[in-house]
Amino acid sequence: MVPPKFLFITPLTPSSMMNEVRYKLHQAYLNALDSQLYSNWEVLLVGEEEKTEGKKTYLKCSGITKGDKIQLAYTYINSLPDKPEYLIRLDDDDIISPMILEKVRDIKFDCYADKYHSFYDLNSGLISQQKRDWLPNTVIHKMEHALQIYGEENKPLFTLDHSKYWHEYYRKKKVKWARKSHPVYLRILSETSITANRPGSNESSENYKKYLSGFGRWKKKELKDFSLLQLPQL
């Protein structure tokens, strides 16, 4: 049996918005990909340059929005004669579990996702996990579903708003839920999650604290699947 292939789609942060914090997060994102225990994967990184480096294919996009970049990724995937079995959207400031592909490679599903969304605060190094009623941005789609034209916008499913359409689409399909202790990925939160630049005023810091309060209880917690990684911290 041929092992399944996984394709990550990542719209890159524009260079004009990069700063020390965003660069650190991007390096952590890349490190998590390179640390995958399972080897049959590739990633499309859509941004400002075109090149190939091993498993990484960089696509140049004339548009600047995340939607523009995801649409270009769709065009690229649609042109492939042999498409991977699975597709995963992943932002370049979030961290995929190094063990997740190895865990799911032999499982049959239409969508594999976190029911408990996992968040990591860059400032404190604390983690929060919160059960939510919608699928997160990063799930593992079976490719046939990811490319399915759907919704009032008549666009491929993986390009649509995850909190609005994905839950609706997968309602009667085979969704496998990750265990709370073994999440698919960590969504990284930092002051750059709200503003493009690291704030310097007390007012901005207070706003960030209020922002964090909406993500549940924060605590020191070890997630063993991420023990291979050095999680970033300010």
Quickly list its features:
234 residues; alpha/beta; Spore Coat Polysaccharide Biosynthesis Protein SpsA, Chain A; eight-stranded mixed sheet; four-stranded mixed sheet; globular
SSE topology:
Elements: E1 6-11, H1 20-34, E2 41-47, E3 51-53, E4 56-60, H2 66-78, E5 86-89, E6 95-96, H3 100-104, E7 111-114, E8 116-121, E9 127-131, E10 140-142, H4 143-146, E11 149-150, E12 155-156, H5 162-169, E13 175-178, E14 185-189, H6 202-212
Parallel strand pairs: 1-2, 1-5, 2-4, 7-13, 8-14
Antiparallel strand pairs: 3-4, 5-10, 6-14, 7-10, 8-9, 11-12
Condensed summary:
With 234 residues, the chain is α/β, with parallel strands linked by helices. It has 6 helices and 14 strands.
SSE topology string: EHEEEHEEHEEEEHEEHEEH
Kindly report the name of the CATH homologous superfamily: Spore Coat Polysaccharide Biosynthesis Protein SpsA, Chain A
Unreliable stretches (pLDDT < 50, length at least 5) are 195-201
- Number of H/I helices: 6
How many β strands by DSSP? 14
According to CATH, what is the class?
Answer: Alpha Beta
Strand percent estimate: 15-25%
CATH topology tier name: Spore Coat Polysaccharide Biosynthesis Protein SpsA, Chain A
Strand order of the largest sheet: 3-4-2-1-5-10-7-13
Q: Note the main sheet.
A: 8 strands, mixed
Roughly how many Å apart are the termini? Answer: 45 Å
Structural class: alpha/beta
Annotated CATH architecture: Alpha-Beta Complex
Q: Overall pLDDT, averaged?
A: 92
Counting structural domains, the number is: 1
Proportion of residues in helical segments: 10-25%
- From the alpha-carbon coordinates, what is the Rg to the nearest angstrom? 17 Å
